[in-house]
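Feature request, filed as a ticket because there's no other form

It would be nice if the structure record came with a short human-readable summary line next to the C-alpha cells. Right now we just get the raw output. Example of a typical job, pasted below so the devs can see what we mean:
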Amino acid sequence: MKVRLLNGLIAIVAVSAFGLADAVEQDLQTQTLCLVAAETVKIKAELATEPKSRERGLMERESLPAESGMLFVYPQNGMRAFWMYKTRIPLDIAYIGSNGRIQEIYSMEPCRSIFPARCPNYPSQQPLRMALEVNQGKFAEWGVEIGDMVFTDDCETPLQPLPAT
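Raw output as currently delivered:
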C-alpha cells in the first residue's frame, strides 16, 4: 500500500514538474515600445523574431505584467493569423505595418480545447511584418486605435521591423 502511494505521489510530482517546465517563459530579448494615443504608454515587449519563439508566443503563461507584451516580427510582409491554443490569458493583438502604423486590432480569448483545430484564429486582413500582443483591454484603456503609431522608446522614432528569421 505504501509503495503504491509513494509511486502515485512520484507520478503526480513528475507530471507537475513536466507541466511547469513546459510553462517556463522563453529567454527572449526585450525592447521598450512607446504607444502614443490618449495617453503615452511605454511597454516592455519580449521579441519573438525566430520561428520557434513566434510559434510558442505567450502559450502556457499564467499572466502578463500590465505594461508588457510580446512583439512578433517576421522577415517579410505577409498575411498572418494568430490563435490562442494553449494560451491561458486573454489578449489583444495589434497588427502593425512595416511603417509602425497599427493596421488592425482584435481581442482574443483563451482556447480551452485540447484540439488545436477547435481554436479560432485571428487572421490579418492585409500583409504585415509585426504584431503586438498585450493583456486584453489594454489598448482600449490606453486609447490606442487603428491608425495609431508604435514608436521606439524615445516616443518619436516610428518602430521599424527588426531583423527576423
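Something like this underneath would help us a lot:
The first helix runs from residue 2 to 23.
The helical segments are 2-23, 51-56, 138-142.
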